UniProtKB/TrEMBL annotation:
It comes from Nonomuraea longispora. One of its GO terms (biological process) is ectoine biosynthetic process. GO terms for molecular function: ectoine synthase activity. The keyword Lyase applies. This is L-ectoine synthase. Its EC number is 4.2.1.108.
Length: 130
């Protein structure tokens, strides 16, 4: 059994920050459970374009407001507490955070914790050593 809190990982290697977001990675590939679990905050007034070409991601908004755009179709969705979106087709997407948007995210395959978005918004597929 693993019990871990956000305060336990704040300021550690599991606490990853980029210009438009901060992600606290609660469960990673090294736990060997088949997914990773992150709390991610996208900062108010920012826009982040992402494309998980190597991962499936489910996102659940627990706080804040924003707008999600499917860059492949142009379709827009309001993001607010209680909204979930699933990138089951590896969709290129942009999240515009009107306020700080706090989310809980699940990735498959699991992230190692070292991933950051490349110039295309993609997380590389990093395999955890056995």
């Amino acid at each position: 059994m693993i019990v871990r809190s956000l305060k336990d990982i704040t300021g550690t290697e599991r606490d990853v920050e980029a210009p438009t977001w901060r992600s606290k990675r609660l469960v990673l590939a090294r736990e060997k459970v088949g997914f990773s679990l992150h709390e991610t905050v996208l900062y108010a007034g920012t826009e982040t374009t992402m494309w998980y070409a190597n991962h499936i991601e489910a996102v659940f908004c627990v706080e804040g407001e924003g707008e999600l755009t499917n860059e492949e179709t142009g379709e827009k969705h309001r993001i607010e507490p209680g909204t979930m979106y699933l990138l089951n087709g590896h969709e290129r997407h942009t999240l515009r955070a009107h306020t700080d948007v706090r989310t809980v995210c699940v990735f498959n395959p699991p992230c190692t914790g070292r991933e950051v978005h490349d110039e295309n918004g993609v997380y590389p597929l990093i395999k955890e050593e056995a």
